[in-house]
Amino acid sequence: MNYIYLITSHRSEGVLPQLYQHKMLRPSTQRYSVTRPLYSEDTFEDEHAKVYRKHKRLRAGKFLNLLFVCYSCTSERAKNTAVSLLPIIGWMKIYSIKDWLLNDIVSGVSTGLVAVLQGLAYSLLASISPWYGLYAAFFPVIMYFFLGTSRHISVGAFPVLSLMVGAVVTRLVPDEGLPANITAFEGLTKDEQRILVSASLTFLVGLFQLGMGLLQVGFIVMYLSDTLISGFTTAAAVHILVSQLKFVLGLTVPGFSGPLSIIYTLKSLFTQITSTNIHDLVTSVVVMVMVLGVKEINDRFKSKLPVPIPIEVIMTVIACGVSYAFNFSENHGVDSPIAPSLQVFQMTAVEAFPIAIVGFAVAFAVAKVYSVKHDYLIDGNQELIAFGASNIFGGAFKSLAASTALSRSAVQESTGGKTQIAGLLSALIVLVVILGIGFLLEPLPKSVLGAVVIVNLKGMLMQVVTVPYLWKKDRPDCIVWVGTCLAAIFLGLDLGLAVGLGLELLTVVFRISIKSLFDFFRIQNGLQATCSMPIEESEDESNMEDLDKPTDYSDLPIQVNWSADLPANIRVPPVNIHSLILDFSAVSFLDISALKGLKAALKEFIRVSVDVYIVGCDPYIIEKLRNCKFFDDEIKTSIFFLTIHDAMLFIHESHPPKTVSEEVNKTVQA
């Protein structure tokens, strides 16, 4: 048997319009003929009575034996458990010092310099001292080095998480007025109170993530679609931009939290706009122009540059040099561990859970990109355990909540990083800064850090350009994006995430309802009416969007031609199938993310010479595929068949069974 048939439901085989039958196929010599009696439900049950199977009871002895077999500890199970909980064991066994170590060193140093600056800058979003942002680039990295499954992400502060932490910090310890009634606050300064809130919240976030990992609920990230995450992070970027304006303008603006906090912040900024500090404004503008310009050079000439120009670090050194000439501060060391406050746990549990979810979702999405590119597997549940342990460890040392930043991970990967040894080296760079030369960064103007934060928001803010594309291709997805973004901007990030999840649920109900209505009217009006349904003409080929363009596999490490002769030292397992059937009769709808995933999967099967056929697909879905320009020179409408039997007949005709003599000849030649 050299074909595969996948069943996704027990529904009866659907009917597709003649419009979608096998275009570009040669006329078939076989016929689809079925002859059977006419059945009502009663007559069918009479002739084919349901068989009830009697299940045997499990005796106590067999039950105990089964428990012993399932839970007994063997050397093999102990080894597998150790490798699962400590992924470092797996990749350390294949680590090539000759080929990888130099790359990891270069990547670690480059990433460490970026992590220092981002740690300082992102701590401003959390309304705490910049030093504790550096801790997020050290303590969590150590734990992730042993427990994480991704070899390329850079663990540390993430602007969205820092902003969400900052909202909790300013709620419990506001800029103006009395702090919350917490016993642990007694005898502490306002800065120390904020550090306690941030550290306790980070610890609680780690507990949530560790608990979800141990309970194997990593699948929860599937409910956060790409559209929802895009809208949410765009709203977070708007919040971050507004929060940094006070540093750029040199104004004193109290922190606001809760719904409409962004409106109150903007109101406070505009009422003080005439008091803008010109020196801070000019400094920020110069830094932003220089950093944006050099980043553009890095992007344009990345193939020619051995490593990206660390312009943020250069500008920071210049700014520190100027400031240091006028201000010298004391040395800073690593603080001792502290116990988290249980009262803070009780008052921040509602905010901690969405922070845990968002931090994991972003990190897992970035890790998945690099795992596909470099051809290795990541484990969602183990990632939850890794980030949970990292945040618990970091929270004990007053660190910010850790996730990953796409820009920092891109530096680690693009500079040649192969494993988390690069991440460990970057943590050592951060440690050197904290213990050795940290005092040089003390006089660094906050306007410089604010400018760096704003420049790094470019990628998240530019996601807004996807709105017109979503409106044309998938309006329910567009509504989720816009609704999530607006809710997160005006109601706050925590409530905005809840609104986004609610909208996503409503769109699922809406899509299913629309499909049901579509099927109903198709049945009522007959097959001919469905075939005459107008099809919108797609726009010019030069205006193709992301989904329309052919998938680029040039960045993947290996492109295997299974039919070609491979080098003598390479052995590739043969593909034992030539055809794959996907039953889409249970598929109600496909959103943009699903379309992209399906297209990428089909391209992969084409690369390994496996023909994929889709059966029972609803005309509503095929219409959407056409409108989104899903089909191209490789993926054609001819892969769709009305029923499983049609596809099977075509496969048998395309790949006729070999005769006995042919099999014998093949065996002799082998």
TrEMBL record:
One of its GO terms (molecular function) is secondary active sulfate transmembrane transporter activity. This is Solute carrier family 26 member 3, tandem duplicate 2. InterPro entries: S04_transporter_CS (IPR018045), SLC26A/SulP_dom (IPR011547), SLC26A/SulP_fam (IPR001902), STAS_dom (IPR002645), STAS_dom_sf (IPR036513). PANTHER family: SULFATE TRANSPORTER. It is found in: Membrane. Keywords: Membrane, Transmembrane, Transmembrane helix. The keyword Ribonucleoprotein does not apply. Its main location: membrane. CDD domains: STAS_SulP_like_sulfate_transporter. The chain crosses the membrane at residues 101-125, 131-148, 155-174, 194-215, 227-249, 269-293, 305-326, 346-367, 421-441, 447-471, 478-503. Pfam families: STAS, Sulfate_transp. Residues 580-651 form the STAS domain. One of its GO terms (cellular component) is membrane. It comes from the Eukaryota.
